[in-house]
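Data card: per-record layout.
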Amino acid sequence: MGAHEEPIESRSPDEHLPPIEQRVLNDIIKAIYEQRLRPGTKLGEEALASAFSVSRARIRRVLLTLSHQKLVDLIPNRGAFVIKPTGSDARDIFNARRSLEDLVVERVAAHPEPATIRRLRAHVRSEVAARHRGQRREAIRMAGEFHVTLA
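The structure for this 151-residue chain is written out next.
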């Protein structure tokens, strides 16, 4: 650890990450959501540090953040693993998401803005086109983005 780096334990998990660590964090989250990193996949520090050309200390901070976001399990003496949600977890997430989506749709429908409607229609066309091309991961990613666009 360099003289200017704090030990991981002294940092708040919600503390703003430096831009390079934020980029690594975002890339790993995207890979998890796109299922390029499947549940149960081990996230080795050395392999990640090499892949992202950053230090293992930076990777440890990113893994700690992912753990606090409930995307990664940190298991002492074994490593970091992409979480394996239980059936109950999946139901809870689905129900929470459905409740939020209902509220968002009601809000958008009550005050439709032409620019928003155009963006949503274009997004749906792109998602359908990805499905027709057989690009399943792209279609899944776009389906998730649709909800962000809607909100």
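Known properties of this structure: The radius of gyration is 19 Å. The longest strand covers residues 72-75.

See the next section for split statistics.
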